[in-house]
Amino acid sequence: MNYLNIEKKTLNKVAESLNLLLADYQIYYQNLRRYHWHVQGVNFFDLHVKFEELYTSAQLVIDELAERILTIRFKPMATLKEYLELANVKEIHAEKDSEMVSAILDNHKIIINQMRTVLENAAECEDEGTTDLVASLLSALEKSSWMLDAWNTKS
Fold first, then answer.
1. Which of 19, 46, 78, 82 has the most other CB atoms within 10 Å of its CB?
2. Could you tell me the sign of the dihedral formed by the alpha carbons of 105, 106, 108, 113, in that order?
3. What distances in angstroms separate CA 79 from CA 8, 76, 94, 115, one per listed residue?
4. What's the mean per-residue pLDDT of the chain?
5. What is the second-level CATH architecture of the domain 8-152?
């Protein structure tokens, strides 16, 4: 049964771009976990909590993306090997607070770009479900980026 009322073959690009977004989010999530565990210094309390907030949010996004891929009748990637091979977000081993925040903002740029690609692909086949999901994720990530950028700005 085609409960989406969209031809499956027209959703190929949507599924591919969602899987790339999923891979990016998985590496981003792991970067956040690393920073949460390794943050030190005068900003420890602020950043430790912020990084936990971000990775908790990323964990939820990962599940939403995988479930959306399943909803449109495709298979989400599910191995670290696949994520590492496909993702545009790379593991980053920043050590200083400002380097960690800058690395997260760099991850956000990549993810935001991929979200826009997903939105373009979803619009082409009138996949409003994917558009709605990714548009809300994009808005939230843009807000997080603004806040991190404000924290990282030198006065």
1. 19
2. positive
3. 24, 10, 24, 21
4. 96
5. Up-down Bundle (1.20)
